[in-house]
Automatic annotation (TrEMBL):
This is Predicted protein. Pfam families: Bet_v_1. Gene3D superfamilies: 3.30.530.20. One of its GO terms (biological process) is defense response. It comes from the Eukaryota.
Amino acid sequence: IQGCDLLEGEWGKVGSILLWKLTFDGEPRVSKDRIEGIDVENNVIQWRVLEGPLKKEYKSFLKTMKVSPKQGGTGSVVKWNMKYERIDEKVVHPERLLKFFVEVITEVDQYLLSED
């Protein structure tokens, strides 16, 4: 991820619109997402894709990230969930995004550890 800009609303608030600048499959991409839900108590956030490459293949796309304490150790476990509707049956399921999500979390982890 090269950047994230707030286009509308407030940082960390439901309804806010974000513009993500990232590299996926070796190509620069831009995605506009709306924060659909935040559950602070359970460490869950949801984003709905409004514009970008995913909208070319999917009618709707909702990403959910949940962070939970790692049982029996330090650190956390991150779980991603994707709910989507393909434009048609020829569009593949988005498994390739899972690798990207792992890369993003790894970058966040490295950043947080460097702050200690």
